[in-house]
């Protein structure tokens, strides 16, 4: 007898665990042909017997409309049943739904209740969301100390989002000792690959107020962030290569990074990229491309680009030297 037939036989006899297992097999296509309707059928049988994981899975299927008609009321119903039995993921889901008014009326008190239930079970995402709720200006629980407490708990579990929020909160103090703690959390997030943290860490080394100034280390962190697609870092590292600050001077690399930032609609990068095309700095001279990028910067409200573009069209102004 095949494994699927044996499990089906037990499930048909009312065994709740095998009903859940069979439903999950059909959901994931594990050992059987994937079939969401069959998955929903067996998960529904399991939830009727109070199976918590089946309640969570069925709630997710109502959320996505997999094997069932999408129905947020049913989704909330099954998430709530699982949450009330202590399922941390269901508690987190309910908290997010009440916070963002997804499928239910917005209710920060309900959001706080369910985030706290999950957070107190050690769920890092819920701890972060609870901190976010306490720090929100729109929330009814605004309490910066409580927010910091929960961000700290989540950050200690390597939540990058919490490490960033905690870092920014500590930077907001006027006491240098807090800034040093902020550097610690940005570093932890940076090591985990956060481009935002890498960029912030690079700025710290460039400024020299929080850590000893080191332009080479600053350039390393900013370039890491740029490589991860951070548009501000791309613009900044382009300037570093143009000026030869912390790195060897290289107009071509400078133009490459400035161009990447410009293509991500960084207005200062667009303005500078246009000047680089006009003056043949790291790119071939091309007046049409120069005007094209200066126009893009002008359309985003760059004041110098607007003035320059008006002058160019009037025939009374050339693109000035950098």
Notes on the structure:
By secondary structure, the protein is mainly α. Among the domains are: 176-228, no CATH class; 231-322, Serine Threonine Protein Phosphatase 5, Tetratricopeptide repeat, CATH 1.25.40.10. The protein has 18 helices and no strands. It has helices at residues 3-12, 16-28, 36-48, 52-64, 72-84, 88-100, 108-119, 124-135, 144-155, 160-171, 176-191, 195-207, 215-227, 231-243, 251-263, 267-279, 287-299, 303-314. Helix 4 runs antiparallel to helix 5, helix 6 packs parallel to helix 8 (124-135) and helix 7 runs antiparallel to helix 8. The longest helix has 16 residues, at 176-191. It is elongated. The chain starts with a helix and ends in an 8-residue tail after the last helix. The model has no long low-confidence stretch (mean pLDDT 92).
CATH level 3 topology of one domain: Serine Threonine Protein Phosphatase 5, Tetratricopeptide repeat
Largest sheet, in brief, is:
none
Tally of helical runs: 18
C-alpha end-to-end distance: 79 Å
Secondary-structure content class: mainly alpha
* CATH top-level class of one domain: Mainly Alpha
Helix and strand sequence: HHHHHHHHHHHHHHHHHH
Query: What CATH architecture of one domain do you see?
Result: Alpha Horseshoe
* Strand runs, count: 0
Strand content: under 5%
Identify the overall geometry.
elongated
SSE layout:
Elements: H1 3-12, H2 16-28, H3 36-48, H4 52-64, H5 72-84, H6 88-100, H7 108-119, H8 124-135, H9 144-155, H10 160-171, H11 176-191, H12 195-207, H13 215-227, H14 231-243, H15 251-263, H16 267-279, H17 287-299, H18 303-314
Helix pairs in contact: 1-2, 2-3, 3-4, 4-5, 5-6, 6-7, 6-8, 7-8, 8-9, 9-10, 10-11, 11-12, 12-13, 13-14, 14-15, 15-16, 16-17, 17-18
């Amino acid at each position: 007898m095949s494994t699927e037939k044996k499990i089906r036989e037990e499930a048909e006899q009312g065994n709740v665990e095998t009903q859940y297992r069979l439903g999950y097999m059909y959901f994931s296509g594990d050992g059987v042909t994937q079939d969401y309707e069959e998955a929903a059928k067996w998960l529904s049988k399991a939830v009727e017997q109070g199976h918590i994981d089946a309640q969570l899975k069925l709630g997710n299927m109502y959320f996505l409309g997999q094997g069932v008609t999408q129905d947020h009321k049913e989704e909330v119903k099954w998430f709530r049943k699982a949450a009330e039995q202590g399922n941390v993921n269901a508690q987190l889901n309910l908290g997010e739904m009440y916070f963002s008014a997804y499928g239910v009326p917005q209710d920060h008190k309900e959001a706080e209740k369910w985030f706290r239930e999950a957070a107190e079970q050690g769920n890092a995402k819920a701890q972060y969301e609870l901190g976010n709720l306490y720090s929100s200006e729109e929330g009814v629980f605004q309490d910066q100390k409580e927010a910091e407490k929960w961000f700290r708990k989540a950050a200690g579990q390597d939540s990058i989002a919490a490490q960033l929020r905690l870092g920014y909160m500590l930077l907001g103090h006027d006491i240098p000792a807090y800034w040093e703690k902020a550097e610690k959390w940005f570093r932890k997030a940076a090591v985990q690959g956060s481009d935002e943290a890498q960029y912030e860490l690079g700025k710290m080394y460039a400024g020299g107020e929080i850590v000893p100034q080191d332009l080479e280390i600053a350039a390393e962190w900013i370039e890491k962030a740029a490589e991860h697609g951070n548009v501000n870092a791309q613009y900044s590292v382009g300037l570093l290569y143009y000026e030869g600050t912390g790195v060897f001077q290289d107009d071509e690399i400078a133009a490459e990074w400035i161009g990447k930032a410009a293509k991500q609609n960084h207005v200062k990068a667009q303005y500078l990229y246009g000047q680089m095309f006009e003056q043949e700095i790291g790119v071939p001279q091309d007046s049409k491309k120069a005007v094209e990028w200066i126009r893009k910067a002008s359309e985003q409200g760059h004041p110098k680009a607007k003035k320059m573009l008006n002058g160019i069209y009037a025939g009374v102004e050339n693109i000035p030297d950098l």
